[in-house]
Amino acid sequence: MKTLPASEPHLSEAEAEEVFGWILDGETSDEEIARFLLAITERSETAEEIAGAARALRARYIPVAGPENAIDVCGTGGDGHHTLNVSTAVGLVVAACGIPVARHGNRAISSLAGVADTLEVLGLDMVAAGRTAEKTLAEIGICFLFAPNHHPAMGRIQPIRKKLGRRTIFNLMGPLANPVGIKRQLIGIARPAYVSIYGDATARLGTKRTFIVSGDEGLDELSLAGGNEMADVTGHDFEMKRVDAGIAGIGHAPLEAIRGGDSRHNAQALTALLAGESGPYRDTVRFNSAAALLVAGATESWESGAAMAGEAIDSGKAAKLLADWIEMAK
């Protein structure tokens, strides 16, 4: 069995790729993995370590065919705010706008309801959704790539993460290892001060365009509550920006206004949203959808992107897409 290094000094990108290869290939003990994950989390992971770890995970996933213009929208999780499922709703809305969305995610690790948990309550058979992922992505423009189906190496890691009950570098690796190999993403992270580091990691891997965002209160989405840090990553470079809801013509609202609950509660809220219910949840989804549509190249302004998102909801397109998806994934 391999002995994992101490948390200091920091690993180079190549060293991180090798070390996380050991972890994913089962060449070290569960106790060693838990110790190592906690140690590097406590001192904060570097851009080199995130990029190297993501390369190790990418090298071991089971790929899925998808259109060249497919995007993903996700949060890294672990923000502790237990909000409604924003990225789940954004994925449906953006796909209803005609942009293929390859959602890649998992069950909740430290939150009350992850994307998979909520979608199951809504009637999506997660096993069937995985089996039909290429078909639904090709035919209706959306799929859910349930991470365990495409990252078999993560099988032994998941119980360790669950036991730790907190975010680790695996929260940061997952969004950078989508099995479709997409090059356009909206990724929310839970640490505003960390956006530049994650932007650097994403740039090291290369992307056509990716937004890394974090609300000032530590939300892993674009927040209505105040300002947001954002890294706009193009190719192997990134630029830091500050944005708030006003840029999309949307008003502010406190974080408590989108507080969620368990998967059943969140599923009910998502159903109401898709039926046209107004309020902060809808506005949060419109704001984040505008960002995703900018990343996808479907719009050139935040305001027009928010308007496109609103139309996708009010026309019933997003609700119909969900119904079609549930029917196809059987």
Automatic annotation (TrEMBL):
GO terms for molecular function: anthranilate phosphoribosyltransferase activity; magnesium ion binding. Its cofactor is Mg(2+). It is an enzyme of class 2 (transferase). Mg(2+) 1 binds at S87, E221. Keywords: Amino-acid biosynthesis, Aromatic amino acid biosynthesis, Glycosyltransferase, Magnesium, Metal-binding, Transferase, Tryptophan biosynthesis. 5-phospho-alpha-D-ribose 1-diphosphate binds at G75, G78, D79, T83, N85, V86, S87, T88. Binds 2 magnesium ions per monomer. InterPro entries: Anthranilate_Pribosyl_Tfrase, Glycosyl_Trfase_fam3, Glycosyl_Trfase_fam3_N_dom, Glycosyl_Trfase_fam3_N_dom_sf, Nuc_phospho_transferase. The keyword Lipoprotein does not apply. Mg(2+) 2 binds at D220, E221. Pathway: Amino-acid biosynthesis; L-tryptophan biosynthesis; L-tryptophan from chorismate: step 2/5. Its EC number is 2.4.2.18. Anthranilate 2 binds at R161. Catalyzes the transfer of the phosphoribosyl group of 5-phosphorylribose-1-pyrophosphate (PRPP) to anthranilate to yield N-(5'-phosphoribosyl)-anthranilate (PRA). In the C-terminal section; belongs to the anthranilate phosphoribosyltransferase family. Belongs to the anthranilate phosphoribosyltransferase family. This is Anthranilate phosphoribosyltransferase. The gene is trpD.
